[in-house]
Structure formats: C-alpha cells, structure tokens
Amino acid sequence: MAQIRRLVVDVLKPHEPPVLAFTQQVGDAESIAGINATLLELDKEVQNVKLTIEGEAIDYDAIEALIEDAGGTIHSVDQVVCGEYIVENAPTPQD
Amino acid sequence: MAQIRRLVVDVLKPHEPPVLAFTQQVGDAESIAGINATLLELDKEVQNVKLTIEGEAIDYDAIEALIEDAGGTIHSVDQVVCGEYIVENAPTPQD
Amino acid sequence: MAQIRRLVVDVLKPHEPPVLAFTQQVGDAESIAGINATLLELDKEVQNVKLTIEGEAIDYDAIEALIEDAGGTIHSVDQVVCGEYIVENAPTPQD
Amino acid sequence: MAQIRRLVVDVLKPHEPPVLAFTQQVGDAESIAGINATLLELDKEVQNVKLTIEGEAIDYDAIEALIEDAGGTIHSVDQVVCGEYIVENAPTPQD
Amino acid sequence: MAQIRRLVVDVLKPHEPPVLAFTQQVGDAESIAGINATLLELDKEVQNVKLTIEGEAIDYDAIEALIEDAGGTIHSVDQVVCGEYIVENAPTPQD
Amino acid sequence: MAQIRRLVVDVLKPHEPPVLAFTQQVGDAESIAGINATLLELDKEVQNVKLTIEGEAIDYDAIEALIEDAGGTIHSVDQVVCGEYIVENAPTPQD
Amino acid sequence: MAQIRRLVVDVLKPHEPPVLAFTQQVGDAESIAGINATLLELDKEVQNVKLTIEGEAIDYDAIEALIEDAGGTIHSVDQVVCGEYIVENAPTPQD
C-alpha cells in the first residue's frame, strides 16, 4: 500500500482542550514528523481547525483515534499525498 | 512514445471508498512516484477530486483501471507532461 | 538562425485522439525535451489545449505537422523564446 | 509530548508598555529562538498585535505568563506547529 | 533583554530634510546594518515614510533620537522582530 | 557608455512574417543572448508583440533595424536595464 | 554617512532623448552598478519613468545632475536603501 506523506484534514472540536494541547496530543502519533494546526473559525460552541500533517508513513487510523480522543471530529479529508516524495497540487485553469 | 511525467485528472467518485483509501489504491500503480489528491467539492452523492500524479513513465491505462476499480470516473484530463523533465505551463497574457 | 528554446501554442483539436495520446504524439518530435499540455476549455466539438514546449532547438515545422497529423490546428503562437537560455517575459506596468 | 516549533497568537494589550518593550519582554522567554510582533490594529484603548514565535521547544505557559505580566491577553491561538521541522499550512481549495 | 533584529516604523516628517538625507542621517545609527525608507504618501506639509531597519542589536532610543533630530515623528511601530534570526510574520486565515 | 543588459519593447507587426520567423530574425542580432516574444493582442491587420531581450551589450540600432526589416515598428520602449548585472524594477506603493 | 545602496526615483522627462539614451546617460554615473528604467506613462509632452538604481555608494547629486542634463526632473524619491546590504521593505498589514 502506498505510504501517506501528507494529510490535510478539516477538524471540528469543542473549545476544550484548547488548540495547543489538542495539536500536541495529535502530534504525539508515532507516524508523524510534523503537524501544523491553523485556526479557521471559532464560534461559541466549536472551533474549526485545519491540520496539515507530514510524515514518512502516516497512520490515519491512529491520527483519527487521537483526534477523537481529544474530542474532535474529522469533517473532511481535504488533501492526501502518497509516494516517494510530496507531490504538490499542480495549478490548472480549472482551479 | 514520449514518457508521461505528470498527469492531472479531475475525478468523480462516490463517498466510498473515502479519499484516503482511494488515493492509496490509485497510488499503488507501479508507474507512480507520487500522487496528490485534493478535494475540490463534495455533495450528497459524489466527491470531486483532483489528482496530480508524477512518475518517470506513468501508465495511464493502469491508473484509469485503478480509478475505476475504486468506483471513480475520470471526468477530464486537465494536464499532461511528457519528456525528459517536467515542463511547467508558461504564463501568457491569454491566460 | 537563432534556435528555438520554448514555444507556447494554443491548439484546437477534436475530442479524438484524447489529450493524453495527442500530447504523446506531439511529444515524439525529436527536437523536443519536454511538453506540457494544459486543457483550457472543452465543448461538444472541440478541445482547446495550450502547449508549452521546451528543447534545445525546437523544429516548429515538425511540431506543426505532428499536431495536424493528430487532427489539431494551431490557433495562435503565444510565446517564442530563442537564444542561449530561456528569457522570461519581464513584467511591466503595461501588462 | 510533541515539541512546539511555532506559535501564532493574537494578543490584545494596552498602549503601555509599547510594542517594542512588550516584544522584548516576551522575547526573553528562554524557550524562544525568535519572535515577530506585527501590529494589526490600534484604537484609543488597546493595541491588537499578532505574535509569530519560533523555537525548538516553545514553553507556552511561560510565554502566556510573560504576555500577561506585560499587561496583554491572548485573544486566540491562530497556529500551532509541532514536530521535527516546521510544517507549513498546505493551501487547499477550501481556503 | 532580547536583541532587536528588525524594526518597522511609520514616520511623519516635514519636506526638509528630503527622504535621502533623512535616511542617511537615521542610517548613521551605529546599531543599524541596513535601512529601507519607502515613501507612502506626501502632501503639502508632510511626508509619510515607512522605515524597515535591520541589525544585530538595534538601539531603538538612538534611532528615535535621530528621527526626531531630523524633524520626524514615529507615528507607529508596525513590526518588531527579536531573537537569534529574523522570524517572518506567518500568514494565517485571520489576516 | 553603460552597456544595455535588458530591453523590453512593444512592437506592432503585420501578420507576415509570423511571430516565430519574426523572433528568429530579430534573435539573430549578434548582441543578443536570448529573446522572449510574447503575443499581447492580434486583430485582422496587426499583431502586438512584447519583446524581452537580454544580452551583455545589446545593440539597439541593430535590433531596431532587424525589427523594421521584418516589417515591425517599435511602438514603445517599456524597460531598459544597464550596468554590471540586471537590476529589477523595485516594487513601491506608487505602483 | 551611510552609503546609498538603492535609489528609486520617479522622473518626468521630455520625449527626447528617448528612454534608451536617457538611461545610458544616467547609467554612466561612476557610482552606479546597475540601473533599471521602467516606463510608467507617456503623453504628448512628457514621459514618466521609474528608475531603480543600485550600487555600493550611490552619488545622488551626480545622478540628479545627469538626469537634469538629459532634460529630466526628479518628481519624487520613492525609496532609499542604505547600509551593508539591501534591506527590502517588509510587508505589514498597514500596506
């Protein structure tokens, strides 16, 4: 199976734990080399956070479990990169 | 025949298998060095995903078969790059 | 005569052969190091494809012949670069 | 626990101490390699400053304490990066 | 105290001395490695100039004194960077 | 006299010779290292082409003669760069 | 006195001498390493040209004299960079 190099997921989470602790908890997944959590929106009840995760062989199930343990839900998987190196999304006129 | 170095295709797929499993299945094609799957749109029935695929000699038929085996359809081929290296689309005033 | 290093042409073609086969056929020209075919528009009858071609000494006549053999027509030549290296179009306030 | 490499926080502060002294006070945190303070807005009572902080293992609690000692409040945590290197937020069509 | 690496200030000044002489006078501060003065606006009475100043350990008080000696006033401090290297303002969706 | 390193000219030309032959003819000037011809507009009678020419010591008179021999007219000289290296147009708020 | 590394000036000039000769005349200043002249606007009487000048120790008075000898007038000094290296104008939210 092709290894996952990058994963971009859109996550909904309650205010607790805060983004910092949430990111550290997800970032503890063994298969992750680095994680970027960027706040998209917040309202009274939930925070919408975009996670960009990179690694040699990312374990999606472990990450999903950590996100859910921390109270979050994956709303959508917005980008998946597999293979020997990270291929970027090539810009096209259809974008 | 000139070897294919990059292929950008616009794919329509049902919600199952999800983008992650779908990308890994297509990424298993032997001729692929890397694959980027970026979610463009999703509605109740289908997901619209843009695949950017790179390799030394990409086997289009094998990729199309893997996409169809995974329940997807190639809606359009948006970019093809052949040759000794990856030539980028040169910006022109007509763009 | 100054050698052609890059050629950008706007091509109209019928749906058959598809963009992939079309690009490979044109990419077989001996004088080409690499070719990028980007889909601009498609309607029922024709596809509008932008070709960015690079090489050390591109043979325009051979490329035009291959395009026409594959059923396409060069609608316009949008950029030509000649010389010892690829000079980019310098941005100016008139753009 | 995954180490924090970058932290972006939105801070509200009174006019005193001014941005310069404020940044130097926060920048004195031992865990910080560098800090960028960019003024977003200012009105009669408060200044809104965006802090981008980088380091090998940023100590959030120490930084929050220094911000509060200097009279500021963290209004939101806008980005957190953990891991072996700084992963940038990958652009996606959902942005 | 964390050393200042970059300072961006918005300055109001009369027409005399002109921007050139003004920049050279401020640029003579010992703690400055380089200074960029960019004209933002000018009307009959005043010129609005943005100064980007870089150095290893910028002495703000000395710079403020030089600006005032040259007839200028610091209207706002728009960016301060401290630490071992220059950290750039990380782009976020809140920008 | 300072040597010309880059020259950007806006040229009007009839449809014949086409852009390709036109560029090769101008590109044959001995003083040119490379030339980029980008199509700006075309109507029934004329083509508007932007030429970006680079070299160590560009001979403007020779280039103007070649353009005119090929039926073209220099409508405007939009950029001239002289000196030891190519200085780019620095962006300013007045742009 | 801090040495001038870059100077951006907005110049008004009559149509004669043309931009090319004008740039070469100004570019002959001993203190200049390179000069970029970009046409901003032209009407019947005057041309508006932006000069970006780089060097180790630019002599403003000599350049102003050369501009005036060539019939031009400095309308405004839009950027001045002094110091050990060229500091770029740092982008800020106030831009």
TrEMBL record, chains A, B, C, D, E, F, G:
Using the record for this protein, list the coiled-coil segments as residue ranges, or answer none: none
Q: Where does the secretion signal sit in this chain?
A: none
Q: Which Gene3D superfamilies does this entry report, sorted A to Z?
A: MTH889-like domain (3.30.70.1340)
Q: Which PANTHER family match?
A: DUF211 DOMAIN-CONTAINING PROTEIN
Put simply, this protein is called DUF211 domain-containing protein
Q: Which organism is it from?
A: Halalkalicoccus paucihalophilus
